[in-house]
Amino acid sequence: MTVTTPAPVTAAPLAERRGRGRGRGPSSDPAVSKAGLGTALMFVGPYLLLFGTFVLAPIAYGLWISLHQWDFLLPGKPFVGLQNYVDLLTPGSTTSEPFWSSMRATAIFTVLSVPLLLVVPLALAVALNKKFWGRNAVRAIFFAPFVLGVAVIGLLWRYLLDPNVGVVNYYLDALGFDRIPFTTATPWVWVALVVPTIWWTAGYNMVIFLAGLQDISAELYEAAELDGANAWQRFRHVTLPGLRPVTIFVLTITILASANVFGQPYLITQGQPGEETRSAIMQIGEQGLRQFNMGSASAMSTVFTLALLAISLLSLSFLRERKVKATTKKEATS
Which of 53, 93, 102, 294 could form a disulfide with 87 if both were Cys (CB 3.0 to 4.6 A apart)? Predict the structure, then answer.
């Protein structure tokens, strides 16, 4: 019986095969790369098409309109360059004072509402994160107003707070108190805007905080309790640091939502008294859709967008700075 031994593997072919494995993997094959690129474009293409059609194209068109004296009812739309922007920055112009007054109203509303839309939902999330009978029902009750549209919220609170026929003033009368001009006088108009907004949107932020709380390890609370930390110390040193990314996210989206307020002042106070509660979005709509000056309205929109972009980048920079510091500290201790 003859035994056949396999031919020895020479060093040269083995080295050649190893070299091919290192130099020409699947990702470096032109055919495979093209196929992968085609597959990626097939999945991303519809999104890019929609994004370009409904986001990038309107942005570019809006910038183009802002460079013209654009009245969509007239055939002539002369090019004016940056004049619309210059008018916004020129005190005494027809567009400067109304726009910056509306920006002031928007800033006041944002400053009043955002801290409460962080503190109230966080307190609710901490309370509803505990186990008790009917917890899910209570969560649903607090979240339920968020599913209503802004038109429903505006009309509901308009009738509740109306100085003449409102339910709140009716009961104030019955109790012997003076009527409160919630929708016609400052500072009550801000109460009429901030309170409905908190009632409407606090449940959404609460759900986000609840998700963040459930990601914090229970072992951290147990270790803190063994070290003698009380409830406040556990909240301060465990809960708040663990919720930092979630808090930055909630802060950013709440600032953007508050700055884009429109429905509440439009339906509840109608911009009163005077133009005290006319928001930036209301002023942009007034300028473009009622006064037919789309060029100035587009310039206002651009300035407003840049302001919101700066605020968003500033908020996100805090999270990035925290991550860099944490990484540097970890590398130093390792």
Answer: 93
Q: What is the per-residue pLDDT across 67-101, written as a single tens digit (0 to 9) for each?
A: 999 888 888 889 999 999 999 999 888 889 999 99
Distance CA 96, CA 89 (A): 6
Which residue, among 196, 204, 186, has the nearest Cα to 271 in the 3D structure?
Answer: 186
Domain 94-329 is of which CATH architecture?
A: Orthogonal Bundle (1.10)
Alpha-carbon gap, residue 139 to 131, rounded angstroms: 12
Rounded to whole angstroms, the Cα distance separating 192 from 267 reads 11
**How many CA atoms, within 13 angstroms, populate the side-chain half-sphere of residue 274?**
7
Alpha-carbon distance 146 to 123, whole Å? 18
Helix (H) or strand (E) run with residue 330 in it: helix 294-333
Share of the chain above pLDDT 70, in %: 85
Contact between residue 160 and residue 171 where contact means Cβ atoms under 8 Å apart: no
The answer to whether 95 and 88 are in contact (CB under 8 A) is yes
Mean pLDDT across the stretch 148-160? 93
> CB 16: neighbour CB atoms within 10 A?
11
Cα 319 from chain centroid (whole Å): 15
Per-domain residue ranges of the chain: 26-66, 94-329
Q: What does the pLDDT look like over 175-189, one tens digit per residue? A: 989 999 999 998 999
Answer for the pair 183, 268: CB distance below 8 angstroms, yes or no: yes
Q: How far apart are CA 181 and CA 189, in angstroms?
A: 8
Read off the pLDDT of residues 236-264 as tens digits, 9 standing for 90 and up. Answer: 999 999 999 899 899 989 999 999 999 99
What number of other Cβ atoms are within 10 A of residue 302's Cβ? Answer: 18
